[in-house]
Amino acid sequence: MALNDFDLVLFGGSGDLAMRKLLPAMYSRHVAGDLPPGARIICVGRHEWSTEDFLETVETTSKPHIKAPAELHYAEFIKRIMYVSLNATDVATYDALVAALRLDDSLTRIYYLATPPHLFSQICDNLSTTGLATPNSRVVLEKPLGRDLASARQINAEVGKVFAESQIYRIDHYLGKETVQNLLALRFGNILFEPLWRREWISDVQITIAEKIGVGNRMGYYDHSGALRDMLQNHLLQLLCIVAMEPPTSISPDAVRDAKLQVLRSLKKFTPTTLSQNIVRGQYRAGHVDGQPVPSYRDEPDAPERSSTETFVALKAEIDTWRWAGVPFYLRTGKRMADRLAEIVVRFKPIPHSIFNQPTSSFQPNSLVIRLQPDEGLSLNLMAKTPGDGMRLKQAELELDFREQFKTPRMDAYERLLLDVLRGQLTLFMRGDELEAAWEWIEPILDYWEQDDNNPTPYTSGTWGPAAASALIGRDGLQWREEV
Ligand code: BG6
């Protein structure tokens, strides 16, 4: 679908996200020939820079993140970029933006707010006061979308005063990842799995996002956030929704988002008693990752001395529906872990009876592993006969490697999502009520941690987190896949 001509305004235009992800994503689409000739990117920031000054920063800070930049394309691409110096909270400075934008109602106008969330409301207000929030404009909101239910509601209410829900794109970049969309294809483009996709046949689901990196230079943000807010409330819950949702009637935004909302609202609420048994929080200590020594979280630059922010969280969730009642969903995420991987493991029930000279317990239950990172693919684990004499069964893998199977170039998650914003496709963005439902479920955990003053358990960098996380799943007679 050809894109309509647009002005894309990036608030936080000189920030980390713009430099590392957004401008490189737009460059790729420029090279692919997707951008209309007149399309422009207007980067907004506080620095009093000219466009030339800004482009020097782009050259040193953003260009290194572009995969294989070609000089000719790059020279053409940066002609689309303009820099506007503006103080987001001072409406008087918006004149510069008014002057920069093309006041043509047939153009699509996008305001991408890659800023701290406390600025969202003021920016929207100022766009409204200056007449820039037109019916053909769209607003993109970057996480963190609140730090609890009250602040998420406030963001929704304040942005909602200026923009209609159909104009609001709440980004969760995990939904832009190829494998996540492939999960939709797997579930609803095949007849095979749907009849089995329920409590009668599935014993448990594990969702892991493990990172090797530490907090790096993001301590200012991260120490007020922690793994629960930074990863679980959004990325992991979105993955859980895609795994667990009922078949939507179509791929249209509201059909998919209604189905996800139903999952979020069906998550069993935690109580202080269930929380004490079903959640583990950890914080990394010094250790080795890839053979290199790495410091403790508390020794990272700018870390508060006795920070009790978690860098790891694991929990057991349940979904109170006919489809899922009694099926545990184990979610886990952490920094400085043994490996970088993001995967979903769906384990099926064991066979009821062995006809072979092997006990039933020697049969590995079937499992489907959906890999998002580092490589993208699916493995279906089956029992098969080992070759040769006799009848001995062993686990074997049916493997679908997306890179091998489809040779077409891949898109980064931000690239895909930016294209969707430009096309006006909302399916892969969170709706306001979804965001609130996710926070509503998370809130008792936040309260519990606060009241209980229960500090995270230390774990050594380069491991799979605190031993308590293994014990959490071990109590149900299970193991995390990497620990089997
Ligand atoms: C971001 C978090 O949303 O996702 C980061 O703020 C995290 O802390 C990142 O590192 C992980 O994303 P990805 O795509 O690298 O798995």
Could you characterize the architecture of this molecule?
This protein has 484 residues and is an alpha/beta fold. The protein has two domains: 137 residues, Rossmann fold; 288 residues, Dihydrodipicolinate Reductase, domain 2, CATH 3.30.360.10. It is 34% helix and 21% strand. Helix 1 crosses helix 13, helix 9 crosses helix 10 and helix 10 runs parallel beside helix 14. The relative contact order is 0.13. The structure holds 6-O-phosphono-beta-D-glucopyranose (BG6). 6-O-phosphono-beta-D-glucopyranose binds next to loops.
Q: Which percent range fits the helix content?
A: 25-40%
What is CATH's topology name of the largest domain?
Dihydrodipicolinate Reductase, domain 2
Mean pLDDT: 95
State the domain count.
2
Number of strands: 17
- Note the overall shape: globular
Strand order of the largest sheet: 16-15-14-13-7-12-11-8-17
Largest sheet, in brief, is: 9 strands, mixed
The proportion of residues in beta strands is 15-25%
Instruction: Identify the bound ligands.
Output: 6-O-phosphono-beta-D-glucopyranose
What does the radius of gyration come to?
24 Å
Architecture per CATH nomenclature, i.e. the level-2 architecture of the largest domain = 2-Layer Sandwich
| Subunit organisation of the chains | single chain
The secondary-structure class comes to alpha/beta
Question: What is the distance, rounded to the nearest whole angstrom, between the alpha carbons of the first and last residues?
Answer: 46 Å
Structure annotation, total helices: 15
- CATH homologous superfamily (4th level) name of the largest domain: Dihydrodipicolinate Reductase, domain 2
